[in-house]
Amino acid sequence: MLPSEQRLRDNRDFRRIYAQGRSYPCELCVLYVWRRNGSAKEEAQGRRIGFVVSKKQGKAVQRNRMKRRLREVIRLLLPQLREGTYDLIFLCRKGLGTAKGDKILSAVLPLLTKANLLNDEKRVP
What we know:
The protein has four helices and four strands, in the order H-E-E-H-E-H-E-H. Strand 1 and strand 2 form a beta hairpin. It has a four-stranded mixed sheet with strand order 1-2-4-3, with helices on both faces. By secondary structure, it is of the alpha+beta class. It has helices at 11-20, 39-43, 60-77, 101-114; strands spanning 22-25, 29-35, 48-52, 86-92. It starts with 10 loop residues before the first helix and ends in an 11-residue tail after the last helix.
């Protein structure tokens, strides 16, 4: 589980990231990245991560399962993520509900690489 200071919860933050951040799509999810600057950099230190699943994806049980699976993959990748002041949102797509853990990992890893968020010296085994 992510520490509470690394979680995105405020709707205002989500809207700001959608509006000002960059997006990186794949077949299982979409990654939104916003590098904080100015006053936003001062209000929260370090990286923050949020997970979003639309109600179109199913009932609460299915949506929560999708978030748990994606959250676990991100938890495994946390040591490889760069330090800095940025926010990430993972928007789950329909295929994530039936995907296996290794497929989720192989989908998320290129997104983090494209966004230049992985440390160069620490790669996933």
